[in-house]
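Ticket #4471: structure output looks truncated?

Reporter: J.K.
Steps to reproduce: submitted the chain below (204 residues) through the standard prediction queue, then opened the result file.
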Amino acid sequence: MKFTIAIDGPAAAGKGTLSKAVANHFGFAHLDTGLLYRAVGAAVLAGQDPHEAARNLDPTTMNTTALRTPEVAQAASKVAADAKVRAILLDFQRAFATRAGGAVLDGRDIGTVICPDAHVKLFVTASPEVRAHRRFLELTSKGMDVSLETVLADVKARDARDRDRATAPLVAADDAILIDTSDMDIETAVQNAIDVINQKRGTI
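Returned output as attached by the reporter:
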């Protein structure tokens, strides 16, 4: 059975954690599409051409830990605004979405561009301040020397780039269900998502 779940939202809203939990619950495959752009961004920081990096990307060899730094996140946001990079990565994401057994994809344009016909679309968000605090705790727990003010500024800058880019801007699909995690723990957010998905699965 093919069943596609598209989960979009800004950085540090909790969509990655929620997506993995949903995929595990239903036994679906999961793809964090942001890692594809982080991998390209990291390659650009290393001196590679972004288009060549996207064409030569091997998702099976991506070092997740190395791709989670603030510098790579900012580079990813910049290459994600490149229409040619997005086009190169489009086919891979769409092929993943239609695999047998179900798929969960999270990113910023899944429900609007990658999988406009997804069976379920969720838009996970939270206030910039809440998201910055989460990211600050994540980074400092890894020993990174950052300030909350700097992280908040980075979150707002990335939001602006993601919203204002000409190609595939960050926006909720018209038929997406909004989950605001500002005052919600992850367990509640995951259960809300599961309830929405179960309801949809029962109608098809």
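Triage note (M.O.): checked the attachment and the full token line is present. The two ends are 12 Å apart (CA to CA).
Status: closed, working as intended.
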